[in-house]
Design goal:
alpha+beta; 4-stranded antiparallel sheet
Amino acid sequence: MGLKTKDRSVEEPTLMPTLKSVPFLRDAPARALKAAEDHTRYFGLPGGWQLFGPGEPSDQIYFVMSGSLGAFRVGANGQMELMGHIRAGEPVGEMSMIAGEAHENAVFALRDTELLSMSREGFMKLVKSDPAILERLTRVIMIRMRQARKKTGRAAEPRVFGIVAASPTIDLKQRARVISE
């Protein structure tokens, strides 16, 4: 005996509220977001998974909704080096997409991350509806380029360490001063 179900149509949820919640897109008019909505998808990327790698085609711009991504390059020793973090609200993949070139570096999820991906076609529709988007994107690119220049020789952002004395005779302030120098 088979299961019987009622015929019903299920509408796909709209991405408009999600698009409006992206800080980078917050000032975009609704008509601009509507133009790009059909070219946008929402997905999750588990921690440790690669979003894209060097040499892969760049036909999407991504917006981090939650979580954190890391941009990596292959260093002189052949090892992956962390270039920087991409946090919630920030775009990623924009430089290669705008240039129309393959990605130069790899981007990995540093922890479980939720993203929006927008096709190049969708992004261009967004820009045609709201040219100010390009100005904001240019600002993001310039800031990232400056930060990358400042980080030359530094593989990662500063980290916070805790020091615990294994014995009451250890002078923690002295140890902390020595480590910080």
